[in-house]
Each structure stands twice: as structure tokens, then as C-alpha cells.
Specification:
Layout lengths: L5 E5 L5 E2 L2 E2 L13 E6 L5 H11 L6 E6 H6 L4 E3 L7 E5 L5 H18 L3 E2 L5
Antiparallel strand pairs: 1-4, 1-5, 2-3, 4-7, 5-8, 6-7
């Protein structure tokens, strides 16, 4: 992955609060072992990533936002390919940080992603 590679993050509808994406969308859960799942934007475009996530994998998403590898590196968050689940899968690694630090970094990622805008937005009723 290159510095400018967009890391595509699926946004669960539950992570929309007052019309805005919450930082929870950019924070790994305990089951994620400190790694946030994303799609490698060099290997798949946002609409195909959405179709894969909601169709093939059967998960819920209202769309995709993105941060870059360079933005993650600027926050000391390594991003790397993780093709075991599927070829386009990658992760942003938060494992070196404590909960409070993770929350702060997730907020910073949300701000970066929000400034970039939606990369894909599901149609109403999807």
C-alpha cells in the first residue's frame, strides 16, 4: 500500500448520531484484537467494497468513508494488508495503545474521514 492509498471503512448505520458519523466507526472493538478492518482502496473501489460487505458478507453498512495510509502513519497507526479473510482486506493497527489513546486516535480518524467526505453512500432503503 502506498501513502496515498485510501483505506475504506464501512459505516454501520448504528454509528450515525445526529446525522454525523461517530468516532465509534473508527475504533476497533475488543473482538478485533486491536485492529480495525478496512478495505485496501488500491484493490477495490468503494461501490464494490460496499457490495462485497453487504452482499457477500451479509453485514450492514450505510456507506463508506476513508482515511489514507499516510494519515494513519501520522497518528502512529500502522496500516497493512491482511488478505486472510479476503484479498482486499487490510487493517489499521491500534494494538500498541491503551483504551483512552485508541478513543482519541479514532476521533482524529473520524475528523479526517469526514473532511474527505463519503466515498460511497448507500441509497435510502438499502
Amino acid at each position: 500500500m502506498k501513502a496515498e492509498t485510501e483505506l475504506l471503512r464501512q459505516i454501520n448505520p448504528n454509528f450515525i448520531q445526529d446525522g454525523r458519523v461517530s468516532s465509534q466507526a473508527f475504533r476497533p472493538t475488543p473482538k478485533d484484537e486491536g485492529c480495525l478492518s478496512v478495505y485496501d482502496g488500491d484493490l477495490i473501489d468503494p461501490s464494490a467494497a460496499y457490495a462485497h460487505f453487504t452482499g457477500s458478507l451479509g453485514f450492514h453498512s450505510c456507506g463508506i468513508q476513508a482515511v489514507t495510509v499516510a494519515e494513519c502513519a501520522g497518528l502512529d497507526l500502522p496500516a497493512r494488508p491482511d488478505p486472510a479473510p479476503f484479498p482486499e482486506h487490510a487493517v489499521i493497527d491500534f494494538s500498541a495503545f491503551q483504551k483512552r489513546q485508541v478513543e482519541g486516535k479514532a476521533k482524529q480518524l473520524r475528523v479526517l474521514a469526514e473532511a474527505r467526505g463519503w466515498r460511497y453512500r448507500a441509497e435510502v432503503g438499502s
